[in-house]
User: What shape does this take?
Amino acid sequence: ERDGAMQGSGGLLGILLVSAAAWAAKRPLGPSVVLVVCDSLDGRLTFYPGNQTVDLPYINFMRRYGTVFLNAYTNSPICCPSRAAMWSGLFTHLTESWNNFKGLNPDYVTWMDLLEKHGYHTQKFGKLDYTSGHHSVSNRVEAWTRDVDFLLRQEGRPMVNLTGDKKHVRVKEVDWQNTDKAVNWIKEKAINLTQPFALYLGLNLPHPYPSPSMGENFGASTFVTSPYWLEKVTYEAIKIPKWSSLSAMHPVDFYSSYTKNCTGEFTKQEVRNIRAFYYAMCAETDAMLGEVILALKDTGLLKNTIVMFTADHGELAMEHRQFYKMSMYEGSSHVPLLVMGPGIKEQQQVSNVVSLVDIYPTMLDTARISVPHNLSGYSLMPLLSANAENEASSPAPRPPWVLSEFHGCNVNSSTYMLRTGKWKYIAYSDGRSVPPQLFDLSEDPEELTNVAMKFPVVVHFLDKILRSIVNYPKVSSSVQEYNKRQFVSWKQSLGQNYSNVIANLRWHQDWLREPKKYENAIQKWL
Assistant: This one.
C-alpha cells in the first residue's frame, strides 16, 4: 500500500524534494573551517610547562587568538583507529576499528561528507588513514598474534639521524608538498568561492621515520631532523624521564617496552637526543601549520574561518621506557587541540576533558547542521564560544569523562582508559586476568605510581562507570576471536609459503633464531 501511495504521489514528492533542496540552498551556512591533523604530537607541548622545550610560534599564535584544550585525548592511541573515531564521531568499539588494518568502510559518511551535502565546498590533502585495508602485513600479523605466548622485538631500536645543514628546512618533503597544495588551494580556489569551505590537511610529522634495518616490513623508529629545526629546541628544558626497573613494570608495559626494543641500555644522552629530535620534528610540523594560517591571513580569509589543530595521538619519546604510542600514558594519549576563528574565545584555556570523537559534532555544529543523537562525541562549541551561555543549558550536557581504548600491536591485552577529574583509570582484558592501573594526575603527573591497590573504592567506582559506557570484557573477547579468525584466514591464503613469510616480518631478527619454537607457540594458540 505504501509503495502504491508513493507512486501515486510522485509529483508531490518531487515538489517536496525540490522545495527541500531550495531551502537547503537558502539556509544560512556557518563559517569556513580548516582542520590540520598531524601524527604523533604530544598535546602537553601546547601549554605550560611542556611548551618551554621547543619554539612553536604558530601553535602559540593559535593560543593567543583562540582556545587551547588542556585535557584533550585520543580515543585510541594508534593511527587508523584514532582517525576512524575522529571522522565517524564514534568510539572504537562501535566502529570495530581494532588495529591499523581495520578502520571504517570506504563509503562511511563522515562529517566532511555531511558538510558537502549541506552546501560546503570540501577539499582534503595529505594523510587520511581512517579506512580499512592499509598498513604493512607485519603490522596486521603482530596485532592478530598478540595473545600468542611469545615475546619478540617488533621495532628497531629508537635512534636519531641528523640530516642536512642549518639551511635545510624541508626535511619531511612529502608533508611540505601537501602543505603547498593546501596553501595554493587557499590562494587560488578558496578565495574565489561564494560558499563556505571545509579544508583538511593531514601531516605525517612528527611521526618517527622508517628504520630499514628492520627488514622488508620495517617499522619506524628513527627520529630525523636538521640543524635548522634542532636550534628551535631548548636542550636545558628537556626532562629525562624516570623509569621503573624492568621487574617492577606493569606486565603490559613490559610487553610493550620489549616489543618496541626498549628494554636494553640507553644512556641519558641517547634519551635526551631522542627527545630533542622529536621536539625538533614538532617544530617543523608547527611551521607547516603556520603556512596554512599565513595563507588564510594573506587572502583575507582568516577572519571568517575557524581553524582547528590536533593530532591522532601523541609520542612517548622514551617516557616509561617506550617510544611510539599504543599506550594510555599521557605522552601517548594526550593530544593537542587548539581552535581559533570567528566567535571563538581568545586566550582561553579549557580544562574539561575532551576527545577526538568531539570533532564530528563540532564540525556539524559549526556548519549549523543538526547533530545526530547516536554520536559518542559532543560539540565543543559551548566550550569555545565567546558569547555562549553556561554549558549546563546545553540540551545534551557533556559527561565529565573521556574514553580511550586500544586493541592493536605492541600491547598484549585490550586496554581501556577512563579519564575523569584528577583520575586516570586503566582496565585490561576481562577486568580480572590483568591488574588495573590508577593514577592521580594532580599528585603524579608523570604517572610513576599506580595507586589502584591504595584506593580500591575509587577503582570500583571508576570501573562501574567504565562498564556503563562499554562492556569491556565482552569487547576484549570479541577482539580475541577477530584476531584468531583473521590470522587463520591469512595463514591459509599463504599455503606452503607461510613459514617463510611469517619468519621475515619485522620480528625476523628474533624469529629466525628459533623459528620452530615460535611456529609451535602459534599452533598452540590456534
Notes: The mean pLDDT is 91. The longest strand covers residues 66-73. The chain has 19 helices and 13 strands. The two ends are 53 Å apart (CA to CA).
